Amino acid sequence: MSEQLRAAPLLAIVVPCYNEEEVFPYCLRELKGLLGTMAGDGLIKADSFVLFVNDGSRDTTWKLIGDAVAANRCVRGLQLSRNEGHQSALMAGLAAVDETVEVIVSIDADLQDDVNAIRRMVEAYRAGYDVVYGVRENRETDTWFKRTSAEVFYRLMASMGIRQVSNHADFRLLSRRALDALLRYSECNAYIRGLVPMVGFGSTEVYYTRAVRAAGESKYPLRKMLALAVEGITSMTIMPLRLIAGMGFCICVLAFFATAYVLWRKFSGNTASGWPSIVLSIFFMGGVQMLSLGVIGEYIGKIYLEVKKRPRFHVESLIQNNAPEQ
Ligand code: UDP
Ligand code: MG
Q1: 325 lies in a domain?
Q2: Ranges for the Glycosyltransferase 2-like domain (predicted)?
Q3: Does 17 contact ligand 1 (Cβ within 6 A)?
């Protein structure tokens, strides 16, 4: 990377929040404190800020964000018109920051990601990197199920040739040019973790220990996790379609030999019995076909959703505190 350090940037920290009233006060305190010390150390510009994106929360999150904005010049709030899900909320936040912002860090509201790693991310940016991934050093704080399913998912993705940073979620730094590049991917169903590596530019990783949620409950139940996994695969690769084609080809080859065998049995006058093989092959083929249709259907559904080019989110309001400095 370049010898000279980049100048201290204007930083925006984007935090998607969905029903996070319990954890919000902690999150606000930590991020505010961090901005203060980093600006004090000359690492970032003094008017750097946190942007909380309220993803249609049904609790008092938006009110808390409003109070925080009224009391702090370094806090801004973005209200979406309804709950759009984590990935869309994050995209909304990334798209909402103004052109003057030079560096963006995205982080979850629950403080599971170590806010102090942001300092190292910014240092890496100043050393010349455009993308800095926050990578969990260990996953001991996750349940056995979450750890194992994540591991299986990463392997599956890697086996299909999708570049994705293991043990990295949406805790990352993007420079202005990396952010602009990411925003050019206009698909409705964006899988940001898969898109960022496609953007390119110099990237590095910072490691941190993932904590348990500071307060409140996970907003990612199993159903949403599975949906994100399917989204990740089907939006990044058409490999499953190729696998189906390959499977079909293998079955055709088998069927060819089976036909030869059956004809040979017929002409040798020995065609009685055999219902187990018929029943089993009907079940087997039925299963394979249904599964294949399902996978193909998933892609057709995706085309259907994409051709409509529906907006990913609607912004209800963007609030910030313009009071003059004390
Ligand atoms: N989130 C969101 N919209 C949703 C679900 C979650 O903005 O529909 C936010 C949530 O407030 C949090 C982040 O996404 O800041 C990650 O969610 P969570 O911590 O519950 O997921 P987990 O860490 O359990 O996977
Ligand atoms: Mg979390």
Answers
A1: no
A2: 13-181
A3: yes
CA distance 257 to 210: 55
Q: Is 84 in the pocket of ligand 1 (CB under 6 A)?
A: no
Helix (H, G, I), strand (E, B) or coil at 52: strand
215 in Cβ contact with 26 (< 8 Å): yes
pLDDT at position 326: 55
Q: Which of 197-201, 248-252, 280-284 has the highest mean pLDDT?
A: 197-201
Structural domains in the chain (count): 2
| Atom 16 of ligand 1: nearest residue by CA position | 108
**For ligand 1, atom 17, which residue shows the shortest CA distance?**
219
- The per-residue pLDDT for range 140-199, each reduced to its tens digit, is 777 788 788 888 888 888 888 777 887 888 999 999 999 999 999 888 777 888 889 888
Q: How far is the CA of 234 from the centre of ligand 1 (A)?
A: 21
Question: Which CATH number belongs to the domain containing residue 83 in this structure?
Answer: 3.90.550.10
Query: pTM of this prediction?
Result: 0.74
Are 219 and 86 in contact by the 8 Å Cβ rule? The answer is: yes
Indicate whether residue 18 lines ligand 1 (CB < 6 A): yes
Domain extent, residue 143, equals 11-217+310-320
